[in-house]
Specification:
The protein has one domain. The protein has two helices and three strands; from the N terminus they run βαβαβ. By secondary structure, it is an alpha/beta fold. It has a three-stranded parallel beta sheet with strand order 1-2-3, covered by helices on one side. Helix 1 links the parallel strand 1 and strand 2. The mean pLDDT is 95.
């Protein structure tokens, strides 16, 4: 099951709710992709993904390289 936001990376609680909802609906694999606009966005995606390492997750940060 997948979720995409092509404009922003939401807060950690929202990302967690995406994971929880997909799992509750029976998803074998949860995929989410967010537009990253900063290093903090990348960090947020990685942090939530790490907290859910017991699940099968594909996490994608979309956008240009932030320098």
């Amino acid at each position: 099951m997948s979720y995409h936001d092509f404009e922003k990376t939401p807060d950690e609680d929202f990302i967690q709710s995406v994971i929880d909802r997909a799992v509750s609906l029976g998803a074998d694999i949860v995929k989410y992709a967010f537009k990253v606009n900063s290093h903090e966005d990348v960090s947020r995606i990685l942090c939530v993904t790490a907290k859910n390492r017991d699940k099968k997750i594909v996490a994608i940060g979309m956008g240009n390289l932030v320098r």
